[in-house]
Amino acid sequence: MDIEKVKEKLKTMLSEKRYNHSLGVMKCAKELARIYGENEEDAEFTGLIHDIAKEVPKEQIEEYIGSGKIKIDEIEKINMGLVHAKLGAYIAKAEFNVSEKIQNAIAYHTTGHKDMDTFAKIIYIADKIEENRTYEHVDELREMAKKDLDSAILFTLDFTIQKNIAKKALIHPDTVDLRNALLMKA
Ligand SMILES: [Fe+2]
Ligand SMILES: [Fe+2]
Predict the structure, then answer these.
(1) Which residues of 107-140 are buried (b: 16+ CB within 10 A; e: fewer)?
(2) Which positions ≥6 away from 149 have C-beta within 8 Å?
């Protein structure tokens, strides 16, 4: 796959800010793949396209759901922002015929999932720590991700869950399941 062509296509699908975020995730995912012995090219590509469905209009998302191309759950029905992960996996398969590994990494990048493999964990955390991200503790988290992916993900999950609790927002069960699985493993 010609990554430059993919970039050109993405530019037509994403705002400049989100396109730059995607480039950041691409770079970070590649670096982490090198550290953790995963396929660097796949990580780069997946990082680049992970948000491919982020700006698909609501009406179009509803068409994908209505035609049965993607299935969403109760929480996603209310929090439509989550759907771009599943839809992104679908579009990545349809457009670029990506492997199941890549589809899963895209599908899990927002809520997380207890069955995430190392590759999916890399995409998940790269999305949160890429160079354009600015929030408290992000530098600490960047260092942590290079040493221990699970600890970095746990840190992010705690942060995200606390934020959602403060907002009285729903928490997706996949997020809670992942946190439990990581705690039990540790
Ligand atoms: Fe995303
Ligand atoms: Fe993202």
Answers:
(1) bbbbbbbbebeebbbbbbbbbbbbeebeeeeeee
(2) 32, 36, 118, 121, 122, 125
Both structure tokens of 137: 């503790």
Tokens of 103: 């589809």
pLDDT, one tens digit per residue, over 104-119 is 999 999 999 999 999 9
Question: pLDDT-derived band of residue 1, with 50, 70 and 90 as boundaries?
Answer: confident
* 40-62 confidence digits (pLDDT tens): 999 999 999 999 999 999 999 99
Domains and CATH numbers, the chain: 3-185 (1.10.3210.10)
CA of 125 from ligand 2 middle (Å) equals: 10
Query: Which ligand does the CA of 54 lie closest to?
Result: 1
Which residues, by Cβ under 5 Å, contact ligand 2, an ion? 51, 127
